[in-house]
């Protein structure tokens, strides 16, 4: 009989502890999903997302400006007509070879003597 009372007491203690722990977990979950808590978490995450989006947009604008200036320089190099302004010569870097404009060289079909086919 003493064994039965002991095991019954151990079972009751474990049951009470398990119920108490389960009750705490449920209360924490309910607390976590209260409208005020959800709103606070949403505001916090929205603030973080806003700064990330701003940084990404700024980086995109910088990349766009760099690409645009590179493309404009390429177009300028290919399509410039007339005299090019002479850049100021610095002692640090010697002038490199100059690229001839397309107007100065004859068309490729005149050099080879072939006619272009029309498609």
Low-confidence stretches: none
Distance between the termini: 107 Å
Helix/sheet category: mainly alpha
Largest sheet: none
Shape: rod-shaped
Summarize the structure.
By secondary structure, this protein is mostly helical. It has helices at 2-32, 35-79, 108-112. The protein is rod-shaped.
Description:
The chain has helices at 2-32, 35-79, 108-112. The chain is mainly α and 119 residues long. 68% of the residues lie in helices and 0% in strands. Among the domains are: 1-33; 36-77. The mean pLDDT is 81.
Question: What key phrases describe this protein's structure?
Answer:
single chain, 119 residues, mainly alpha, 3 helices, 0% strand
Topology:
Layout: H1 2-32, H2 35-79, H3 108-112
């Amino acid at each position: 009989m003493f064994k039965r009372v002991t095991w019954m007491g151990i079972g009751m203690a474990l049951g009470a502890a398990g119920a108490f722990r389960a009750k705490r977990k449920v209360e924490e979950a309910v607390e976590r999903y209260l409208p005020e808590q959800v709103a606070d978490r949403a505001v916090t995450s929205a603030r973080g997302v806003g700064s990330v989006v701003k940084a990404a947009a700024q980086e995109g604008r910088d990349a766009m400006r760099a690409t645009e200036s590179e493309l404009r320089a390429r177009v300028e190099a290919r399509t410039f007509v007339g005299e090019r302004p002479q850049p100021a010569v610095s002692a640090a870097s010697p002038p490199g070879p100059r690229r001839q404009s397309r107007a100065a060289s004859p068309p490729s079909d005149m050099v080879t003597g072939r006619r272009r086919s029309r498609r």
